[in-house]
Amino acid sequence: MEEVKQIPLKTLHENLGAKMIPFAGFNMPVRYSSDLEEHMTVREGVGIFDVSHMGEFMLEGPKALDLIQKVSANDASKLEIGKAQYSYLPNETGGVVDDLLVYKRGEESYMLVVNASNIEKDWQHIQKYNTENVAMQNVSDAYCLFAVQGPKAIEALQELTTHNLSEVPYYSFIEGEMAGIDDVIISATGYTGAGGFELYVKNERAEELWNKVMEAGEKFGIKPIGLGARDTLRLEMGYCLYGNDITDETSPLAAGLGWVTKFTKEFVNAAKLKEDKEQGTAQKLVGIEMIEKGIPRAHYNLLNEAGDKIGEISSGTMSPSLKIGVALAYVNTAYAKKETEVWVEVRNRKLKAKVVRPPFLKSGV
Fold this sequence. Notes:
Helix 2 packs across helix 7. The protein has 8 helices and 20 strands. The chain is an alpha+beta fold. Among the domains are: 5-52 and 141-236, 2-Layer Sandwich (Gyrase A, domain 2), CATH 3.30.1360; 282-359 and 361-365, Elongation Factor Tu (Ef-tu), domain 3 (Beta Barrel).
């Protein structure tokens, strides 16, 4: 069995009472109090996640953009310095190597942020296409990443920096001073739909930054938040989780990633994906909202009225904000239309649900 890696602030989280579990190859805080309490803290106030398990690659030089264009489906040539872009790495067989964020730090300088479970796989995949010897550096072990999320996140962080955070648009970032620490990447991205920032900081200053964010956020009720609430928060927004909703086997077009698939350029397996777009896919990823009481869990079957299997849930939970069961699921395309009634098979029972278009939580906060 592969050894589970430790994040730099493991001891700090244990001292805060976190329950630690193995996740994506790392020992991670899953919760500190309760998933429900932590979820609502982020929706209504501000919380801080340690997501230092995520991977960061730096790509530099005149051919860096060409390599990114080749391996990713979105059009990174549209990025300006200080902007970030959501994208994915298509594989050669019609699936997805990973989804990721692309940051443009300079004219010939980019940062790719990848999922923890895929760091090695992504690195090997990109290197395979690095025929121009682009300077690539895997700095995943050198950086901590904190997500400060919630409607009060800007207020909590603003007193720690001279940069006007309210002027940093969504999917934009600045590199500068935060809490007396230089060269922090302050990114207006997130995975909760509640607003806020992600802070990339070198390991040696990470605990200092965490403590200063906690101090500044105290008057706003800031709390540390674990992966349990992170999952329910992202599900309420209909955000995909790699390994559940998108995988090496799932078509990105079926997964609803057509909006970041740009056929105006050449990229890995573009011809097959173009075919998927033109011919349509056998299944589509949709939102499922329970009509009858029940919790739709991953891998539960979806049935039609006659009891035939028409799909399978990829991620599901009880929404803490809406108090109903919600899920993402792949269904046969004939059943993918909004408001279509379907049935979730829960322990030999059929519970009525309907197809909806995410986000489930329409306001996001």
